[in-house]
Specification:
By secondary structure, the chain is α+β, with helices and mostly antiparallel strands. It contains six helices and eight strands, in the order H-E-E-E-E-E-E-E-E-H-H-H-H-H. The chain has helices at about 1-55, 190-200, 205-210, 215-225, 225-230, 230-240; strands at about 80, 90, 100-110, 115, 125-130, 140-145, 160-165, 175-185. It has a three-stranded antiparallel sheet, with no helix packed on it. It has a three-stranded antiparallel sheet with strand order 6-7-8, with no helix packed on it. Strands 1-4 form a two-stranded parallel sheet. Helix 2 (about 190-200) runs antiparallel to helix 6 (about 230-240). The longest helix is centred in the N-terminal third of the chain and has 54 residues, at about 1-55. The N and C termini lie far apart (about 150 Å).
Length: about 250
């Protein structure tokens, strides 16, 4: 009888142990499922951030809106045929006959807007010009650098190397900036009329030479009383014809 009671107690203990083990297993599965559900969105979000930061930038770079420098020279909505050469690209024909009229096909550059005679916007147009290179233009069609180092009053007359640039409204073939040898032609502000008047009135005291910046000659005339009048008469003649000029080598105004 005692053995039967012990066997029943053992069975109950086994049932309780089995129930507790099943409960433990079920609680472990539920916890793993909860952990998976909560961690999956986080991993997906992390992947999305990783792929975004690795492959493509999160913020797109702003498109360049820089306007080319030549646009400032191009009048807006003006006639295309009157645009400066820097505002267009032309198919120049270097086989044209020098001095004869020539027609070239042109196209406006980006960011440039122009119209035709009927006020219609256009991109392709033609221009008429004379067939000649830029360095063959008239002196009034380009601007050159000036030199203040060469002597304008000399024999033979001195030249200097200048850099010339064609004016904006002039069309020509070749480079629009070119070197050229020019005669010295600059002034220091001395007036020919003032120098001549001083030579006639106060030339015996060297006033004309002092005015022109020739201090040595002026002192010589001053202490010799104009070379007893002979030097004074000679200077009147030389300044009158323009042979004697400013000491810095410039021209009279």
């Amino acid at each position: 009888m005692a053995a039967l009671l012990g066997l029943r107690a053992l069975r109950r203990l086994c049932s309780v142990a089995l129930f507790l083990s099943q409960l433990y297993v079920l609680s472990g599965r539920a916890g793993s499922l909860m952990t998976t559900k909560h961690s999956q969105p986080q991993s997906t979000f992390a992947k999305s951030l990783t792929s975004t930061s690795t492959n493509t930038p999160y913020f797109k770079a702003a498109e360049s809106t820089e306007i080319p420098s030549y646009v400032t020279k191009c009048p807006s909505n003006g006639l295309c045929s009157r645009l400066p050469p820097d505002c267009m690209t032309c198919n120049t024909n270097y086989s044209c006959i020098y001095g004869n009229p020539a027609t070239f096909d042109c196209r406006v550059k980006p960011h440039v807007h122009c119209v035709d005679q009927n006020n219609h916007e256009q991109e392709n147009f033609t221009i008429n010009m004379t067939c000649q290179f830029c360095w063959q233009l008239a002196t009034t069609d380009y601007v050159c650098t000036n030199s203040t180092n060469c002597m304008t009053v000399s024999c033979p007359r001195q030249r200097y190397n200048a850099t010339c640039t064609v004016r904006d409204h002039i069309h020509c073939l070749g480079n629009r900036v070119f070197p050229k040898m020019l005669y010295c032609n600059w002034t220091g502000g001395y007036k020919w009329s003032t120098a001549l008047a001083l030579s006639i009135t106060l030339g015996g005291f060297g006033a004309d030479r002092f005015y022109l910046g020739q201090w040595r000659e002026g002192l010589g005339k001053l202490f010799s009383f104009g070379g007893l009048g002979i030097w004074t008469l000679i200077d009147v003649l030389l300044i009158g014809v323009g042979y004697v000029g400013p000491a810095d080598g410039s021209l009279y105004i």
